[in-house]
């Protein structure tokens, strides 16, 4: 089928395949390919170590955010346990790698699967619970998982934490930020590609149907509960893989980061990015991670400056304040998320100069 | 003239223009019906009047709406309802968890603090079916009862201008007949001016005094109801009756697809 | 046996306190279906305001109590006005996320001003308020909680069931668009419910401050404790909030006393999940009426 050269000014699709294409025009495909090539060929060599660290973090976080977007944005089940699932993935990989000496290539997917299983267990309440009640049930999951991570000493080493062995992939020793960049980003692009395509299948459409009206979806013959569970499993799988990568990247993990605040941060990413939009989840991940880094940098600088040095310690709460403020401002001024900003910006180019 | 809409344009989200210069006039005490296909802009016109565009990110960008001598376009719904314009939303939107009587009491919101017992009696006299359901949660009522409920709820507010959006939606023909009978009675006995948006053109033109036909965000035809009823185009496209007065055969009805473009 | 009874009484009184804290939360949910993640911070605000007025400014007790309530009322009103009003008509998840952001903002600013240390009120409750039966005793604070809680329970119940303003509030929660079309002053309803909620939250903040001292982290933690409490009772039931609070309180006290103190914080959630599986809308929540 011949592809369109330019974006049409309206909806001129005539066949379902056209509705389903990932790239509407050849240009879209070209730009994406170029972008990916540039990402791998240029970024690791141009970026400073610190920038690369931030970029890697974004990659990891974005994987988890994309997973959460499948659950929240596409299936409509708000989960407050994503941070804990992320932790399960991290601990899964850490335990597999330290106790049984599993290689990275096996430990990461296995951690994903373990997390998917855990996610399904905590998705079970979705058989009967809806909306906010389900959200709180996942909040319960968050606390229960946190408790287990801290108190199941024999496996997780409790508050001591676990230190992972240096990872290697089929003989290739992954070292430094550049090494990790080449580990994280292929995984990220693969996962993103899978997620985008998942939404074009029967399963993706079933998720969307459940989100829009689960009763009606049931009436259409979609078995709601298995699909909801599947959605929980997939989203936790993403969280698990991301968590495993995070564990390898930070080398030593404790239970501390996988708390409710992390779960909330992930939801913030999905919302700020734009719910039900894959690119949105990535935008959200970029935004929140960069914001976090800027705030950290800002507080560090304030502490080192003479005038503010005395109140140095007191500046920590300021970070929390600014973080909250950023979320608030974003939601008030662009509740549809960054993806919408991007879409409007793009279509204003496309439609210029006649915007109606 | 109770309500004058003067050449208004409505734009949603600053991009989608739905109304492109709509003008209409509603005389005090009349029933004016607004006909047209799906997406013609009928509901948007009503929302422009009642101020409910705002929560949907819509805006009157051009023209003016004048109610009882003062401009009301782009006022908030709270202010507009307090001037006596009440809209009955499309698709019956009851307060599902409130009982029928509590639903009716919400109708008194625009004159909070005044007694409402008399109004309840009045509404029950128009809609006796509601009396038996008083203590029942509205979510469990039938479609016909709900339509009566939402109309009764609006009546509790003593509107000067009642905007009805598709009261016949999804109801049995007999119930539709009953409801239209009540609309006519309300108009005659309470002197309430009514703007009626309908798909059921036949029914609407029977009780209305005056009618407008909309298509593609524009008014394409207007006239007294009797005239519209006799108009051959209206007959063909909205009443489904051919010029000869007989029902069309299926073969002819297919020509409906080649819908006439006005203008 | 005495140990058990004492645990039970402790649990009951703490639970009642949870219920009282949860009441404001339910209030907001009932009128606007918003899960308020900033509730713990509202509680903290009340506690700190009272601290400032009573201990630092040395105002008389009743005066600082009233001023605190007024301050909380105003804060709730302002929060609605500034942050929530632009979001009227947007999907709920945005509003909920907004409260998450607000929580971070409030917590940050309270920490900025007061720091993370523990402050305490002067001891002012007369000891005769404490009750004792045999070996089991009830502290004065809890007696006060009991009285305040019961009073508010009755007041709110009557308000929502019979008063016009209460019915308007419920109608807004039910169907915002329809309420708007009938001229219900949706904004006023929201503002009022936030104001009242903040007032109740502030009051429970004072009581909590008397018991545990005033500390942002603890108080905002109570905001999270509120979730199992209200969900257990049913999100929209004020009576349910109290009963949910009591159940959680007793559970916590018993687990803390008999099993292990560390399990104390998790047990409410475990029980919660099981109860929800049996009763998906909580013990007293409204069953959602769905029509396709």
Sum this structure up briefly.
Chain A is an all-alpha fold and 356 residues long. In chain A, 72% of the residues lie in helices and 2% in strands.
Keywords:
heterotrimer, A: 356 residues, mainly alpha, ABC transporter involved in vitamin B12 uptake, BtuC, two-stranded antiparallel sheet, 17 helices, B: 263 residues, alpha/beta, Rossmann fold, 2 domains, six-stranded mixed β-sheet, four-stranded antiparallel β-sheet, 11 helices
The backbone outline of chain A, from C-alpha atoms, is globular
CATH fold topology of chain A = ABC transporter involved in vitamin B12 uptake, BtuC
Morphology call of chain B: globular
Mean pLDDT of chain B: 84
Low-confidence residue ranges of chain B: 253-260
Order of helices and strands of chain B: EEEHEEHEHHHHEHEHEEHHH
Largest interface summary:
A-C, 46 and 48 residues
The CATH topology label of the largest domain in chain B is Rossmann fold
DSSP summary, beta strand count of chain A: 4
Give the number of domains of chain A: 1
List the helices and strands and how they pair.
The complex is a heterotrimer of chains A (356), B (263) and C (292).
Chain A: H1 16-20, H2 26-41, H3 43-46, H4 49-74, H5 82-99, H6 104-123, H7 131-151, H8 153-156, E1 162-163, E2 168-169, E3 172-173, H9 176-198, H10 202-212, H11 214-219, H12 224-250, E4 252-253, H13 260-273, H14 278-304, H15 306-309, H16 316-333, H17 338-351
Antiparallel strand pairs in A: 1-4, 2-3
Chain B: E1 3-12, E2 16-26, E3 31-36, H1 42-50, E4 58-67, E5 70-71, H2 77-82, E6 85-88, H3 100-106, H4 117-126, H5 128-131, H6 143-155, E7 161-165, H7 173-190, E8 193-198, H8 201-207, E9 210-215, E10 218-224, H9 225-230, H10 232-239, H11 250-253
Parallel strand pairs in B: 3-8, 3-9, 6-7, 7-8
Antiparallel strand pairs in B: 1-2, 1-4, 4-5, 9-10
Chain C: H1 2-32, H2 39-56, H3 61-84, H4 92-114, E1 131-133, E2 136-138, H5 140-162, H6 164-174, H7 176-181, H8 186-212, H9 216-233, H10 238-259, H11 267-278
Antiparallel strand pairs in C: 1-2
Descriptive notes:
The complex is a heterotrimer of chains A (356), B (263) and C (292). Chain A has helices spanning 16-20, 26-41, 43-46, 49-74, 82-99, 104-123, 131-151, 153-156, 176-198, 202-212, 214-219, 224-250, 260-273, 278-304, 306-309, 316-333, 338-351, and strands at 162-163, 168-169, 172-173, 252-253. In chain A, helix 4 (49-74) crosses helix 13 (260-273), helix 6 packs across helix 12 and helix 10 (202-212) packs across helix 12. By secondary structure, chain A is mostly helical. In chain A, 72% of the residues lie in helices and 2% in strands. Chain B folds into two domains: 3-230, 3-Layer(aba) Sandwich (Rossmann fold); 237-263, no CATH class. In chain B, the strands form two sheets. A six-stranded mixed β-sheet of chain B has the order 6-7-8-3-9-10, sandwiched between helices. A four-stranded antiparallel β-sheet of chain B has the order 2-1-4-5, covered by helices on one side. In chain B, strand 9 (210-215) and strand 10 (218-224) form a beta hairpin. In chain B, helix 3 runs parallel beside helix 6. Mean pLDDT of chain B is 84; it is low at 253-260. Chain C has one domain. Helix content of chain C is 74%, strand content 2%. Chain C contains eleven helices and two strands, in the order H-H-H-H-E-E-H-H-H-H-H-H-H. Chain C has helices at 2-32, 39-56, 61-84, 92-114, 140-162, 164-174, 176-181, 186-212, 216-233, 238-259, 267-278, and strands at residues 131-133, 136-138. A two-stranded antiparallel sheet of chain C has the order 1-2. In chain C, helix 1 (2-32) packs across helix 6 (164-174) and helix 5 (140-162) packs across helix 6 (164-174). The interface between A and C is large, with 46 and 48 residues.
């Amino acid at each position: 089928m011949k592809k369109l050269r330019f974006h049409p000014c309206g909806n001129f699709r005539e066949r379902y395949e056209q509705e389903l294409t990932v790239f509407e025009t050849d240009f879209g495909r070209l730009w994406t390919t170029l972008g990916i090539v540039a990402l791998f060929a240029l970024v690791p060599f141009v970026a400073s170590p610190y920038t690369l660290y931030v970029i890697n973090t974004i990659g990891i976080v974005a994987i988890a955010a994309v997973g959460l977007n499948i659950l929240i944005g596409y299936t409509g089940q708000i989960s407050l346990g994503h941070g804990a699932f992320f932790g399960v993935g991290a601990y899964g990989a850490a335990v597999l790698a330290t106790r049984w000496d599993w290689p990275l290539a096996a430990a990461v997917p296995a951690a994903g699967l373990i997390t998917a299983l855990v996610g399904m267990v905590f998705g079970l309440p979705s058989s009967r619970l809806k909306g906010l009640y389900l959200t709180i049930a996942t909040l319960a999951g968050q606390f229960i998982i946190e408790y287990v991570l801290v108190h199941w000493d024999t496996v997780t080493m409790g508050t001591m934490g676990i230190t992972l062995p240096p990872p290697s992939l089929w003989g290739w020793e992954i070292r430094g930020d550049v090494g990790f960049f080449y580990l994280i980003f292929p995984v990220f692009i693969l996962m993103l590609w899978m997620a985008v395509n998942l939404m074009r299948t029967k399963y993706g459409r079933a998720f969307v149907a459940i989100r829009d009206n689960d009763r009606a979806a049931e009436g259409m013959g979609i078995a709601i509960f298995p699909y909801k569970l599947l959605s929980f499993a997939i989203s936790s799988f993403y969280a698990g893989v991301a968590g495993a990568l995070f564990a390898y990247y930070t080398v030593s993990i404790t239970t501390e980061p996988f708390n409710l605040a992390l779960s909330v941060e992930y939801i913030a990413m999905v919302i700020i990015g734009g719910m039900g939009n894959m690119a949105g989840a990535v935008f959200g991940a970029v935004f929140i991670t960069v914001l976090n880094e800027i705030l950290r940098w800002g507080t560090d600088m304030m502490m080192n400056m003479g005038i503010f040095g005395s109140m140095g310690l007191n500046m920590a709460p300021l970070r929390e304040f600014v973080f909250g403020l950023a979320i608030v401002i974003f939601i008030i001024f662009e509740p549809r998320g960054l993806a919408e900003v991007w879409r409007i910006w793009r279509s204003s180019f496309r439609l210029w100069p006649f915007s109606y | 003239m109770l309500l004058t809409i003067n050449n208004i344009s409505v734009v949603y989200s600053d991009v989608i223009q739905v109304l492109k210069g709509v003008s209409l006039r509603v005389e005090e005490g009349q029933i004016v019906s607004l006909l047209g296909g799906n997406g013609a802009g009928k509901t948007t016109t009503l929302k422009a009047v009642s101020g409910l565009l705002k929560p949907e990110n819509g805006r009157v960008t051009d023209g003016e709406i004048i109610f009882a001598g003062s401009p009301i376009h782009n006022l908030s719904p709270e202010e507009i309802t307090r001037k006596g314009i009440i809209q009955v939303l499309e698709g019956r939107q009851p307060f599902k968890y409130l009982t029928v009587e509590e639903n009716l009491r919400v109708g008194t919101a625009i004159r909070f603090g005044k007694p409402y017992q008399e109004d309840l009696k009045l509404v029950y006299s128009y809609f006796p079916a509601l009396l038996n359901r008083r203590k029942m949660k509205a979510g469990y009522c039938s479609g016909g009862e709900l339509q009566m409920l939402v109309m009764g709820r609006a009546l509790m507010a003593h509107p000067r201008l009642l905007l009805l959006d598709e009261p016949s939606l999804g109801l049995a023909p007999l119930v539709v007949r009953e409801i239209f009978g009540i609309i006519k009675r309300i108009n005659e006995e309470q002197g309430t001016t009514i703007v009626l948006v309908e798909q059921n053109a036949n029914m609407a033109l029977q009780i209305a005094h005056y009618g407008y036909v909309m298509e593609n965000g524009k008014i394409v035809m207007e006239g007294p109801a009797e005239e519209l009823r006799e108009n051959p185009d209206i007959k063909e496209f909205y009443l489904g009756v051919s010029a000869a007065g007989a029902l069309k055969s299926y073969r002819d009805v297919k020509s409906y697809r080649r819908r006439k473009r006005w203008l | 046996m005495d140990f058990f009874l004492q645990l039970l009484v402790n649990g009951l009184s703490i639970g009642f306190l949870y219920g009282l804290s949860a009441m404001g939360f339910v209030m907001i949910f009932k009128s606007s279906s918003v899960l308020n993640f900033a509730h713990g911070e509202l509680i903290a605000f009340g506690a700190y305001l009272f601290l400032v007025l009573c201990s630092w400014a040395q105002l008389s007790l009743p005066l600082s109590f009233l001023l605190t309530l007024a301050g909380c009322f105003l804060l709730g009103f302002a929060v609605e006005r500034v942050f929530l009003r632009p979001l009227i008509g947007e999907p709920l998840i945005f509003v909920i996320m907004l409260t998450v952001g607000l929580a971070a903002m409030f917590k940050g600013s309270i920490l900025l001003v007061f720091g993370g240390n523990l402050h305490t009120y002067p001891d002012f409750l007369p000891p005769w308020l404490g009750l004792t039966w045999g070996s089991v005793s009830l502290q004065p604070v809890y007696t006060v909680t009991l009285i305040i809680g019961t009073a508010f329970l009755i007041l709110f119940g009557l308000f929502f069931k019979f008063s016009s303003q209460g019915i308007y509030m419920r109608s807004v929660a039910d169907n915002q668009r329809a309420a708007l079309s009938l001229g219900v002053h949706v904004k006023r309803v929201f503002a009022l419910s936030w104001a009242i909620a903040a007032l109740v939250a502030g009051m429970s903040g004072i009581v909590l401050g008397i018991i545990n001292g005033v500390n942002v982290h603890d108080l905002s933690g109570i905001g999270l404790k509120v979730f199992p409490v209200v969900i257990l009772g049913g999100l929209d039931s004020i009576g349910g909030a109290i009963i949910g609070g009591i159940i959680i309180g007793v559970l916590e006290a018993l687990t803390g006393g008999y099993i292990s103190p560390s399990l104390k914080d998790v047990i409410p959630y475990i029980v919660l999940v099981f109860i929800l599986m049996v009763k998906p809308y909580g013990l007293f929540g409204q069953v959602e009426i769905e029509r396709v």
